[in-house]
Amino acid sequence: MWRDRLTRGLALHLCLLLTFLCVCLHVYLELGERRGPPSPLTLGRPTQTSQVLLDSGARKLGAADPMERRVGAEDRAVKRRVSYVRTPKKDSVAGKTVGGEEPSTCCPPLRPNRKHARWHIELEPWASDSHSLEGEARRFLSYITSPQVFCGPPSPESPVVQGGQEGPEGRWAVCLDSRYSLAQRIHIQHCRVYSLGLGMEDKTLERSLVRAGCEVHCFDPSLRQAHLQESDMWLHRLSVDWRDPNPAIPAQRQHSNTKKLATILNDFGHRQVDVLKVDMESAEWKILENLVLEGVLSSVGQLLLEIHLHWAGFEVSGDDPSVVRYWFSLLKELERAHFRLFHYHSDPTKPRLFLHRNVLNATSAYTLGWVNTQWRS
Question: Which residue ranges does UniProt annotate as crossing the membrane (predicted)?
């Protein structure tokens, strides 16, 4: 009798052992399938940081069985890898591809020509150990009055663009040298111009570029209509700022409709601007800083900039030597972005003021022309 009981007990234990082995084999096969080759949509393995997060999440599952915690971690790992896939927005208008090219199948960046955003500019070393205003002003004024490249005369077949280099109303000039692409772009009527201004300023250069065949957009917050076409120029009731409006502030409390240039380019579906003219009445320093930090300068062929020196400018702080050092550092950032000064003009009608005083007999306003030597449109 006891032998029969022993035999039945051993058989029962053997059945339980076989059942446990079958369950383990099933779990092992399931995990093997989960750890198989990734889906073709998967772009890569999770980063080390993601893996640490997965491991910490697995420890917080609270399951009694370690195998269940491992299964949960594997499930989240698969979901995390698939979540890396993103569909980029097309930089175009109404869903059209830019330049007639088909989009890449490997997730191209939204703006491949732009660098990653930065937090601050690199300040140049002081002009002298004394950190004096005269030393900083002398270096700055020498820099803005020393052209770095010579803009040769345009070829006979180049279009005639009247901006002028003499007189208070003809201080703007573009470079039509054959080494750079603006003349060729105008010739094929594939030229785009952005003019940023405040109030009723002179539009001689813009009208001349329109007659030459360029697409010209003027931004002025004083306009009565949101968008208006006048003399083949587009006028927009927009003011370019160094920051986008705060969404928490109601629209009726905002002083004007302001946006960053990068936002406007994205809204209009424009990737490149052949000529960017900026006359923002002392807001140019912070706007230029924003263009540098967000890498927008790589989308600009020529930059025509009027700078105002009678005071530090909007939201520019510090003592006078530090302000001039900041100005100089911003212009050196242009040089790092492959821009070279080809033209400067001092307005003789402006007062001789440099940070509220007469320093080296400098005028309070200068117009500078910069060309992107690596501009490829």
Answer: none
359 in a domain, yes or no? yes
Chain Cα centroid distance, residue 10: 75
Alpha-carbon distance values, 127 to 227, 288, 324, 326 (Å): 46, 22, 10, 12
Give the span between the Cα atoms of 161 and 153, in whole angstroms.
12
Q: Is residue 207 part of a domain?
A: yes
Tell me if 317 sits within 8 A of 234, measured CB to CB. Answer: no
For the chain, the first-to-last Cα distance in angstroms comes to 98
User: What DSSP assignment string belongs to 58-79?
Assistant: HHTS--SSHHHHHHHHHHHHHH
Does residue 317 belong to any structural domain of this protein? yes
The first and second tokens of residue 357, run together, are 């005083």
CATH code of the domain in which 283 resides: 3.40.50
Q: What are phi and psi of 33, to 5 degrees?
A: -70, -35
Closest CA to 329 of 364, 282, 370, 292: 292
CA distance 104 to 107: 6
Tokens (6 digits) for 377:
């449109």
The DSSP line for 90-132 is PSSSTTPPGGGPPPPSS---S-TTSPPP-SSPPPPPPSSTT--
Integer Cα distance of 280 and 307 in angstroms? 9
Please tell me the distance from the alpha carbon of residue 275 to that of residue 73, in angstroms, as a whole number.
54
What tens digit of pLDDT does each residue of 284-319 get? 999 999 999 999 999 999 999 999 999 999 999 999
Residue 33, burial from CB neighbour count under 10 angstroms (0-12, 13-18, 19+): exposed
CA distance 303 to 71: 58
- Cβ distance 161 to 174 under 8 Å? yes
For residue range 61-94, list pLDDT tens digits in order.
344 444 444 445 444 444 433 333 333 343 333 3
Residues of the chain with pLDDT under 50: 36-71, 73-113, 164-169, 252-255
Q: How far apart are CA 308 and CA 311, in angstroms?
A: 7
| Strand 215-219, strand 227-230: pairing | unpaired
Q: Compute φ and ψ for 228, nearest 5 degrees.
A: -150, 140
Q: Distance (Å, rounded) from C-alpha 168 to C-alpha 95?
A: 44
| Residue 207 and residue 233 in contact, taking contact as beta carbons nearer than 8 Å | yes
What's the alpha-carbon Rg for the chain, to the nearest Å? 32
Is 337 within a domain?
yes
